[in-house]
TrEMBL record:
SUPFAM superfamilies: PIN domain-like. Pfam families: 5_3_exonuc_N. One of its GO terms (molecular function) is endonuclease activity. Residues 1-116 form the 5'-3' exonuclease domain. InterPro entries: 5-3_exonucl_a-hlix_arch_N, 5-3_exonuclease, FEN, PIN-like_dom_sf. This is 5'-3' exonuclease. The keyword Nuclease applies. Keywords: Endonuclease, Hydrolase, Nuclease. It comes from Streptomyces evansiae. PANTHER family: 5'-3' EXONUCLEASE FAMILY PROTEIN, FLAP ENDONUCLEASE XNI. 5'-3' exonuclease acting preferentially on double-stranded DNA.
Length: 117
């Protein structure tokens, strides 16, 4: 089963309260929500394998060139040409991405992503 991992953990970050934290206070709500999604998918579909598809570039320029509105609803604000777009993400999500990578590795779930995709 191929997982749109970024979509799942982004969604989980809004679905699980950010009060869910590790003992040291680090937010883990997106990681917890992602694990809940994975458990449900495995229970419902019984896949032979899982592969976490990873967005190395959340909004690649070649896609924006083809479709200027590609993920435009996620851009925080208009930026002058030549500047990097910034995605609106909860402040608690970015610190969880390395945790999510570690959890996937610990579970033996392969992760694949290719730049600039």
């Amino acid at each position: 089963m191929l997982l749109d991992t970024a979509s799942l953990y982004f969604r989980a970050s809004f679905g699980v309260p950010d009060s869910v934290r590790a003992p040291d206070g680090t937010p883990v709500n997106a990681a917890r929500g992602l694990l809940d999604f994975l458990a449900r998918l495995v229970q419902d579909h019984r896949p032979d394998d899982l592969v976490a598809c990873w967005d190395n570039d959340w909004r690649p320029q070649w896609r924006v060139d083809l479709i200027p509105t590609y993920k435009a609803h996620r851009v925080a604000e208009e930026t002058p040409a030549g500047q990097t777009d910034e995605e609106e993400i909860p402040d608690t999500l970015s610190p969880q991405v390395p945790i999510i990578e570690d959890v996937l590795a610990a579970l033996g779930i392969a992760r694949i992503g290719v730049t600039p995709y």
